[in-house]
Design goal:
This is D,D-heptose 1,7-bisphosphate phosphatase. InterPro entries: HAD-like_sf, HAD-SF_hydro_IIIA, HAD_sf, Heptose_bisP_phosphatase, Histidinol-phos. Its cofactor is Mg(2+); Zn(2+). This protein has 173 residues and is an alpha/beta fold. It has one domain (4-165): Rossmann fold, CATH 3.40.50.1000. The protein is 34% helix and 16% strand. It contains 6 helices and 6 strands; from the N terminus they run βαβααβαβαββα. The chain has helices spanning 32-41, 54-57, 62-77, 104-113, 127-136, 157-165, and strands at residues 4-7, 45-51, 85-89, 121-124, 139-143, 152-154. It has a 6-stranded parallel sheet, sandwiched between helices. α1 (32-41) runs parallel beside α6 (157-165). It is globular, with a radius of gyration of 15 Å. It starts with a strand and ends in an 8-residue tail after the last helix.
Length: 173
């Protein structure tokens, strides 16, 4: 079984001062590529799990989102970092099992890539990210303000990756 890190997108790997509706709106944090590359080097599968309700609301299309994600992947590749897969929930008002705080996106990726969720992490900046990670059985890291349901609370992705790569107490099966 593989170990993984599930990352929320907006507010975790990129700035989210305003909506990201087209590729040029995507601005990665300065530490993002280095942090993801560190996870790659430690043989973690790295996934993005992101709520993208703007699709259902009509702010952008799935084609627009694909262009944003292709831009993201190309930008990371220039820094020798990569994302193994991206799952998104296009719903906003619909009753679905994929939109965080539900664990659907995490569980789908875990099944597809044979992930041991107990040895994996969910990193997010919203309480709903942490709730999804907890429901899936991952360790959770909250960025920004503390949330009691999270295993760890840190300032940014760089700090979260430091915790993950130094988690010597984990026993991988």
């Amino acid at each position: 079984m593989n170990k993984a890190v599930f990352l929320d997108r907006d507010g975790v790997i990129n700035r989210y001062d305003s909506p990201v509706n087209k590729p040029e709106d995507l601005e990665l944090y300065p530490w993002t590529a280095k942090a993801i590359k560190s996870l790659n080097e430690k043989e973690y599968k790295v996934f993005i799990v992101t709520n993208q309700g703007g699709i259902e609301c009509g702010y952008f299309t799935e084609t627009d989102l694909n262009e944003i994600h292709q831009h993201l992947l190309a930008t990371l590749k220039k820094e020798a970092a990569h994302i193994d897969d991206i799952e998104y929930c296009p719903h906003f008002n619909s009753d679905c099992k994929c939109r965080k705080p539900e664990a659907g996106m995490i569980l789908k990726l875990a099944k597809k890539y044979d992930i041991n969720l107990e040895n994996s992490f969910m990193v997010g900046d919203r309480n709903s990210d942490i709730e999804a990670g907890n429901k899936a059985g991952c360790r959770t890291i909250k960025l920004g303000s503390k949330y009691p349901a999270a295993d760890y609370s840190v300032e940014n992705l760089e700090d979260a990756v430091e915790i993950i790569v130094n988690a010597q107490e984990l026993i991988y099966i």
